Amino acid sequence: MNYQAILNVIEKELANFDAGGKVPTYIPELAKVPANKFGLNLYCQNGEHFNFGDYDELFSIQSISKVFTLTLAKKFGGKKIWDRVDVEPSGDPFNSLLQLENEKGIPRNPFINAGSLVIADILISELENPKKYLLEFVRKISNDQTINYDESVAASEKENGYRNIALVNYMKSLGNIKNNAEDVLDFYFYQCSLKMSCYQLSKAFMIFANKGKILSTGEKVITTNNTKRINAIMQTCGFYDEAGEFSFRVGLPGKSGVGGGIVAVHPGQYSVAVWSPLLNEKGNSEKGMKALEELTSLTGLSIF
Ligand code: GLN
Predict the structure, then answer these.
(1) Residue 40 CA to chain centroid, in angstroms?
(2) 58 and which of 96, 115, 175, 195 could share a cystine (Cβ 3.0–4.6 Å)?
(3) CATH number at residue 54
(4) Does any domain span residue 262?
(5) What is the 216 CA–ligand 1 centroid distance (Å)?
(6) How do residues 95-141 score in pLDDT, each as one tens digit?
(7) Is the interface score ipTM higher than 0.85?
(8) Number of compact structural domains in the chain
(9) Half-sphere exposure of 256 (CA within 13 A, CB side)
């Protein structure tokens, strides 16, 4: 298949696509990003990659980082992490305070903020220096030592993260946060501030398309079974209250972030990352979703 020709069609077709929506103003640093950025990188199982536009430019990966932290929590926390976070779609926005009223403050899944904050708490308990470990892990699976946190984005969110502060404190009152609330928030804001390009993200996510193995080195970093589980949660919960819509239109497991990025994987075939900062009201990149819908329609390569 001529992937580059298909990507050229998508780029051209969407050049004047009116995404509507807005950049997230609740993280002031992200509101500064030019809304017209648009790039995509497709990374194939055979190591080939294809792209267009701003595919090589760094952006804030935000909630896409929740997939990396879940991967590490599963590795170090084992099965018992499922006693503290469920695996059901929530049908609520990513930052919702709802559905925590169960006695133990157990979030619906690890990809809503509440769930990822519990995962952050688990990593703080399991690892001596979770920030350093996470960064080294992401650099390793991307085979790229230049990847880093964005201190100004982390600080910007810390100053304005009232919702997340409320979530951590509420869950702590119910006994599902074990560490100091400030430490959990600090780690969470740092993980969200990771800056990566579509190229780097699609390369990193090849572990989920390649049964847990890093494509370039062959090293297995997640078991096949855990890869299956993480892909399943991406499929059902990766887009919050728009998970059904993404599944319906794109037909791949994936994860979005309020930085405007989306990554999706086709196990055994490819991983793809797209970036366009304007978000719809569910907090997902509208043009990014459209580009991926076109990709799976034109190639016929969705998982369904
Ligand atoms: N850091 C963002 C938040 O907690 C992440 C949300 C997202 O990307 N959906 O609000």
Answers:
(1) 15
(2) 195
(3) 3.40.710.10
(4) yes
(5) 30
(6) 999 988 777 899 999 999 999 999 999 999 999 999 999 999 999 99
(7) yes
(8) 2
(9) 31
